[in-house]
Design goal:
Pfam families: GerE (PF00196). This is LuxR C-terminal-related transcriptional regulator. It comes from Blastococcus carthaginiensis. InterPro entries: Sig_transdc_resp-reg_C-effctor (IPR016032), TPR-like_helical_dom_sf (IPR011990), Tscrpt_reg_LuxR_C (IPR000792), WalR-like (IPR039420), WH-like_DNA-bd_sf (IPR036388). This protein is elongated. Helix 4 packs antiparallel against helix 5 and helix 9 packs antiparallel against helix 10. It has 30 helices and no strands. The longest helix has 18 residues. Among the domains are: 249 residues, Tetratricopeptide repeat domain (Serine Threonine Protein Phosphatase 5, Tetratricopeptide repeat), CATH 1.25.40.10; 55 residues, Arc Repressor Mutant, subunit A (Orthogonal Bundle), CATH 1.10.10.10.
Length: 546
């Protein structure tokens, strides 16, 4: 079979590397003259990150459409080239030039009513988002969606729906926005949307879910994105962003070894060739190093994130706090909180970014003893949590409130907020966040005089920190008390279990009933977060109780 036929067949199979190779060979033979074949070459080259080949092929396709008088196809070709240059490469001038060319083509010979005019509403919506005008963006995207549905253009309708969701989220209507994102994903998963549009939707939807800390949706759509990438041999764009999302979700669920591996893969994937999302990958890797106590590696990764254009805060300020440089951490977080970010209107453009800064600010300011400033940050964080409404965002705000109340000695109020946060983190299966909250719960319980339950909470937190590898948190927690809140009689029972005694033998030795022994053992297992007698024996020897 000739290279052109092989290339066309590979495109149908979404085998992009093979498609690009065959179509380039066909072009070398002079067989690539048809505009549609040039579009195929541009698509396969773009999806395998052969950017120069893709741009030249799309430009030739545009000229071929224009030469045969197909204004609508030429305008559509110019639109996609402009959008790819803007979104994938950050080439604002060239991307804007191609979008202007698409506009001119439509003005010179297109009907007043056509889907192609709807496509040009999409960059208008993106510009409105960038300048902090979610209402204007929503209007443009809604018109694009209407045009897509009128002309039965799945790409246009789906991208418009995606844009509406993004605009609603940034305008403070997270629930309605997420519903639009789900609708866009349904169209993508039904196979009605082109590969480039599908990739844009997948990545934008997952990013939006993470922006409002909707962890369940992020998990679901990241798994779908992974499957979509894996089903297309040779696909390069979108895969790196997928690895970043997977790294963060693995971190949330406490699998930090996998998170580091995914983040390192993302850094490599997005750096060769360079991608706009590379800074995000390095920031995620830096954060993993920070929570694991790998300070030098974290410092290097934060530096690389900065080189690639990613803001290192609040992670860098928290690293300084862990290094004992509290005043440096305070100065860094204050600068980050006071610095206006482009396109932010009342903190709703990027709610998670602002929330993370505020939560870190509360932690750092409390460490510096400035409860007043921490309380002010808490109030703003509460407002974001109420607006966004997701469980993880509410848990973040509740923990911050509890930490401030704890620092002020209001232990009952602290316990209420911290218990709410703990319940939310536990329901989201975010063990590290739950463990950090348990530490604060333990301190609140101690303040209220409940040493027994406090010891149980701190012991449970310690075991999570040990499991995930959270060295700095273990260090802050200090050495475990040998008895870990056990009563004298419970200590007696543990020692006898470690000697290999049965419940009946323990009852005889201590002159108590079998039922009482069983109750003491249940309390021991609960307080020490142990699963069975063997674990209790190991604990007894490890802590020199025998």
């Amino acid at each position: 079979m000739d290279p052109l036929s092989l290339g066309r067949a590979a495109v149908e199979q979404r085998a992009w590397e093979q498609a690009c190779t065959h179509l380039v060979a066909a072009d070398d033979q002079g067989a690539l003259q048809d505009a549609e074949d040039l579009l195929r070459l541009g698509l396969s080259a773009h999806l395998t990150r052969k950017d120069e080949v893709a741009e030249v092929a799309w430009e030739r396709a545009y000229e071929a459409f224009a030469d045969r008088g197909d204004v609508l196809a030429a305008a559509r070709c110019a639109f996609w080239l402009g959008l790819v240059l803007l979104l994938a490469h950050g080439a604002d001038a060239r991307g804007g030039g191609w979008l202007a060319r698409a506009q001119r083509a439509l003005e010179e010979g297109a009907p007043q009513e056509c889907a192609e005019r709807g496509y040009l509403l999409l960059p208008a919506g993106l510009r409105a988002l960038d300048r902090g005008d979610p209402a204007g963006a929503h209007h443009a995207f809604a018109e694009a969606t209407t045009a897509g549905r009128r002309f039965r253009d799945a790409d246009l309708a789906t991208l418009g729906c995606l844009g509406q969701g993004q605009a609603l989220i940034r305008g403070g209507a997270a629930a309605r926005g997420l519903a639009h994102l789900d609708e866009a994903m349904v169209a993508v998963q039904a196979g009605r949307v082109s590969p480039v549009a599908s990739g844009i939707v997948y990545c934008a939807v997952v990013l939006a879910c993470q922006e409002v800390l909707d962890l369940r949706r992020a998990q679901q759509w990241t798994a779908a994105l992974t499957g979509w990438c894996d089903a297309q041999p040779g696909l390069i764009p979108f895969r790196g962003q997928c690895l970043v999302h997977r790294a963060e979700l693995a971190q949330w669920r406490g699998d930090w070894a996998e998170a580091v591996a995914e983040a390192e893969r993302a850094c490599h994937w997005l750096s060769d060739p360079p991608d706009l999302a590379a800074g995000t990958a390095y920031y995620r890797l830096a954060e993993l190093h920070r929570v694991r106590g790998e300070q030098a590696a974290g410092e290097a990764a934060f530096q690389q994130a900065v080189v690639l254009g990613h803001d290192p805060q609040p992670g860098l300020a928290l690293l300084r706090l862990a290094q004992g440089r509290t005043q440096t951490a305070v100065a860094s977080i204050r600068c980050a909180l006071d610095r206006p970010a482009a396109g932010v209107v009342d903190g709703v453009r990027a709610p998670r970014s602002r929330a993370e800064l505020l939560a870190a600010g509360v932690e750092i300011l409390l460490a510096a003893g400035d409860t007043g400033a921490a309380g002010a940050a808490c109030l703003e964080l509460d407002g974001i949590a109420r607006t966004v409404g997701t469980s993880a965002m509410r848990a973040t705000a509740a923990r911050a409130r509890g930490a401030v109340s704890l620092a002020e000695g209001r232990y009952a109020a602290a316990l209420g907020d911290l218990s709410d946060a703990l319940a939310r983190w536990s329901a989201l299966v975010a063990p590290y966040e739950a463990a950090r909250t348990r530490v604060l719960v333990g301190h609140a319980l101690r303040g209220l005089g409940d040493e027994d339950t406090a010891a149980m909470e701190l012991t449970t937190a310690r075991r999570v920190f040990e499991t995930v590898g959270a060295g700095p948190d273990l260090e802050r927690l200090g050495a475990p008390p040998p008895a870990a809140g056990l009563t004298p009689r419970e200590l007696d029972v543990v020692r006898l279990v470690a000697e290999g005694c049965t419940n009946r033998e323990i009852a005889a030795r201590l002159v108590i009933s079998d039922k009482t022994v069983a109750r003491h053992l249940h309390n021991v297992f609960t307080k020490l977060a142990l699963p069975n007698r063997s674990a209790a024996t190991a604990y007894a020897y490890e802590h020199h109780l025998v």
